[in-house]
């Protein structure tokens, strides 16, 4: 399973775009990149998943360069409710076990 | 939007007691999981369950733990004799294809 490295914490202000980068140097050919969000005392929530280039949904965008050794989660115009921990996970699409790191704690200020 | 539900939301028990945590996964999902998160720590995999049997388990999931899908809708985690270090949030998850859906969790406090 590919190990991931992401910043421990980030601060932002409401209305700003936030980009969280995750490093996964030993990503395997079959691995996908998935981001989860977790609020305090709640279960992780799927945000976005991708394999290469760019993926966008109603919540976020995921940018993956050609070498796939890193990825960037982009949250457009964050609000206070985006304050949470964001996890980058790398693994097989149908993996039977998710390996969570420590994630990035995003604090959004008014 | 379908949701994974868990009961109770909070369980307090004394050391040595048995607890059963309950989950109702998404109805058409086939893969079921338990994870736990000790306060301030990472989310940790406990066990995966498919076709009425355990498909994978972690080192944490020792003989004190068991899982069951007793009636085709509920999915339970039993801890036979709780220890203080079992205090944590326990999350159930289910998967249909590639996307996991997690429940809201049960906070287990062992005193």
Number of helices of chain A: 0
Task: Give the overall pLDDT of chain A as a whole number.
Answer: 95
Q: What is the rounded Rg of chain A? A: 13 Å
Share in helix of chain A: under 10%
How many β-strands of chain A, per DSSP? 9
| Outline of chain B | globular
- Secondary-structure-based class of chain B equals mainly beta
Biggest sheet overview of chain A: 5 strands, mixed
Based on CA atoms alone, the radius of gyration of chain B comes out at: 13 Å
Biggest sheet layout of chain B:
7 strands, mixed
| Oligomeric state, counting identical vs distinct chains | heterodimer
Could you list the spans of chain B in which at least 5 consecutive residues all have pLDDT below 50?
none
**Distance N to C terminus of chain A:** 38 Å
Low-confidence stretches of chain A: none
- Based on Cα principal axes, name the global outline of chain A: globular
Q: Show the largest interface.
A: A-B, 19 and 25 residues
- How much strand content do the residues of chain B show? over 45%
Order of helices and strands of chain B: EEEEEEEEEEE
Provide a descriptive summary of the structure in words.
The complex is a heterodimer of chains A (110) and B (111). With 110 residues, chain A is mainly beta. Chain A has no helices and 9 strands. In chain A, the strands form 2 sheets. Chain A has a 5-stranded mixed sheet, with no helix packed on it. In chain A, strand 6 (61-64) and strand 7 form a beta hairpin. The radius of gyration of chain A is 13 Å and the shape is globular. Chain A starts with 8 loop residues before the first strand and ends with a strand. With 111 residues, chain B is mostly beta strands. In chain B, the strands form 2 sheets. In chain B, strands 2, 4, 5, 6, 9, 10 and 11 form a 7-stranded mixed sheet that branches. The radius of gyration of chain B is 13 Å and the shape is globular. The termini of chain B are far apart. The interface between A and B is medium-sized, with 19 and 25 residues.
